[in-house]
Amino acid sequence: MAGIKSIGILTSGGDAPGMNAAIRAVTRSAIFNGFSVKGIMRGYKGLVFNEIVEFKSQSVSNIIQLGGTILKTARSQEFTTPEGRKAAYDNMVAAGIDALVVIGGDGSLTGAGIFAEEFNVPIVGLPGTIDNDLGGTDSTIGYDTALNTIMEAVDKLRDTASSHERLFFVEVMGHTAGYLALNSAIATGSEAAIIPEMETEVDQLAELINHGFRKSKNSAIVIVAENPKTGGATALAERVKKEFPQYDARVTILGHIQRGGSPTAVDRILASRMGEAAIEAILDGQRNVMIGTMNGKIVYVPFAKAVKHDKGIDRGALDLVKILSI
Ligand SMILES: Nc1ncnc2c1ncn2[C@@H]1O[C@H](COP(=O)(O)OP(=O)(O)O)[C@@H](O)[C@H]1O
Ligand SMILES: O=P(O)(O)OC[C@H]1O[C@](O)(COP(=O)(O)O)[C@@H](O)[C@@H]1O
Ligand SMILES: [Mg+2]
Description:
Elements: E1 6-11, H1 19-32, E2 36-40, H2 44-48, E3 52-55, H3 82-94, E4 99-104, H4 106-119, E5 123-127, H5 143-164, E6 167-172, H6 179-188, E7 192-194, H7 204-212, E8 220-225, H8 232-243, E9 249-253, H9 265-283, E10 289-294, E11 297-302, H10 303-306, H11 315-324
Parallel strand pairs: 1-2, 1-4, 4-5, 5-10, 6-8, 6-9, 7-8
Antiparallel strand pairs: 2-3, 10-11
Helix pairs in contact: 1-9, 5-6, 6-11
Bound molecules: adenosine-5'-diphosphate, 1,6-di-O-phosphono-beta-D-fructofuranose and magnesium ion (MG).
Residues 13, 105-107, 129, 175 line the site of magnesium ion (MG).
């Protein structure tokens, strides 16, 4: 796009495997197309506090296979204030940055939308979060790797669950979304997934125990999406102790292990395609859109739609867990 010479890139919010592959793709595609690139450290914090470094092609060598983010990431309270964003804008202008590529989750893209509007800054977003909780894209960068990490962990827990004939509640991340829980339940042959999207509709634990939980089986794994409102897996296990004492229940909270590790091929490819598409979008005059993929094709998603995460939950997938665990 005319007038854009220098592109700033940052990662923000929770780290996700594949962010480095995305940084690499954005940097190399930008340089390939004649832009200069600036790396902004620690997400919006680095814009507010002026931590900006020159990026060359070699700056992103040998990182495609690494989890985390070489740009570091942070959650910046300062950027949520008008004064913080003004400081960010001033630093950006002083560094000669004309457009931004923001790699992050719903919070980061909400911030990007506000910043873009306030200061008329062209921004392209990339969905970087293990939670898959962004609208307009089939998958986010990091989601596949996290699913695989959960799958490996649950496969191990299955040994103990079946040997000791226990009921395991395995808590996975997801913020307020149940994608990780639901799809890891399918991948591990778990007996149920308890997800926030269904919380107001049914008592998922009672349903599981009374109807779904196999009478013929004496061990089970239930994947529970984290849920600060209800207390997640810990609260469910407490309920079992009181209401269904015949079951020997245990809780495993997988925690931040789900965010780390080398990205899968799926995430590396997704990040590479999306990173290149971000530069194509800038060249095409697009602004304030997130790059998504729908049915394998790159799409541009306005920030407002992306952060709504209105993809909904796939009822068919919930049914599948039930059908396959009889
Ligand atoms: N409403 C907002 N206004 C301005 N900045 C925001 C807003 N929401 C989030 N941000 C910025 O984005 C950062 C990352 O958001 P967060 O929700 O923590 O992570 P994620 O992007 O992974 O969802 C926040 O620390 C903040 O700096
Ligand atoms: O690492 P923290 O700050 O405890 O945050 C935990 C949250 O971050 C996540 O791992 C990732 O969420 P984001 O990608 O939106 O930051 C959530 O699943 C979880 O709720
Ligand atoms: Mg988020």
